[in-house]
Design a protein that fits this description.
alpha+beta; three-stranded antiparallel sheet; two-stranded antiparallel ribbon; 5 strands; 13% strand; globular
Length: 186
Amino acid sequence: LKGKYADKKKLADEAIYLERVLCEEAGGWQDQIAASFGGMNRIEFNKNGTYEVRPVIIHPDRKDQLNDNLLMFFTGFTRFSSDLQKANAVGYKEKVKQLQEMYELVDEAQKVLEDKHSDLDDFGRLLDTTWRLKRQTGGAITTDSIDGLYERGIQAGALGGKLLGAGGGGFLVFYVQPDKRAAVME
């Protein structure tokens, strides 16, 4: 805003500081990092409070196919992310198993995206697996209405999907093969 260049890491760090320290908002760092760095990246969070961002390298044709297979829908529900973060933090220790399982799927998802010989549809199936795990990590992650929308998408032919962000509302993204797009959109 001051007309000065800020490198991607500095921009992410300042956004995190603004939200977490100055505004005292609860939540993670991934959104600030993703917005600052852009593109598709793997973000590794270290125990010492630092992070590393590594680009996920996808062949342009494969990236086009991935983009063609993703559909995003607004759920019709809005919420404050920090409120959900606080609600979902309750009972964190009981959720470690699901979080660990989700983390272990990251390598598999990255391999599917980067390996042009792998079946890209496996990425959609992994989205479904991680969404079903994420649902178990907090009572405010989803609602009956959101679950209903998700299941309607799956029944219409989506291979998988997830609710974006902290949960409780916002946007659903689905991985859908081209011949099922119209049914899922309907």
